[in-house]
Structures are given as C-alpha cells and as structure tokens.
Amino acid sequence: MYPGSFILHDALEGWFKGENKSLIRTRAAKAYAKNPKISLNGGLSIFKNLEPN
C-alpha cells in the first residue's frame, strides 16, 4: 500500500486554513510530486479538479 499520509497532511493544512479547493488540490499535488520526484503538472494530473468549469 502507498504510504501517502503526507498528501493528506498537506491537503488538510490548507483545509484548516480555509483555502479553496483549487489550492488544496495544488497542495496535495505538490506533496505527491515530491515522492517520485515528478513535476507539479504530473502531480496535478493525479488529482481531479473539483472547481466548476
């Protein structure tokens, strides 16, 4: 199993600060991208954009 608690930690930090969904998504993507050392865009591709189009 993938030990992704660091993703949850960073996303929750934004949620506790009252950030919008887009910023929380970016926080999660940045945390995810650090582990396999991929770009932020690669990390963002993992998480669905929850903002209305």
How would you describe this structure to a colleague?
The structure is a single chain. By secondary structure, the protein is mainly alpha-helical. It has one domain. The chain has three helices and no strands. It has helices spanning 5-16, 21-34, 40-44. Helix 1 runs antiparallel to helix 2. The longest helix has 14 residues, at 21-34. The radius of gyration is 11 Å and the shape is globular. It starts with a helix and ends in a 9-residue tail after the last helix. 15% of the residues are buried.
The major β-sheet equals: none
Spatial gap, N to C terminus? 33 Å
* Uncertain regions spanning at least 5 consecutive residues: none
Mean pLDDT: 84
Key terms:
53 residues; mainly alpha; 58% helix; globular
Question: Can you summarize this structure?
Answer:
It is built from three helices and no strands.
Write the layout of secondary structure elements.
Blueprint (H helix, E strand, L loop, with lengths): L4 H12 L4 H14 L5 H5 L9
Helix pairs in contact: 1-2
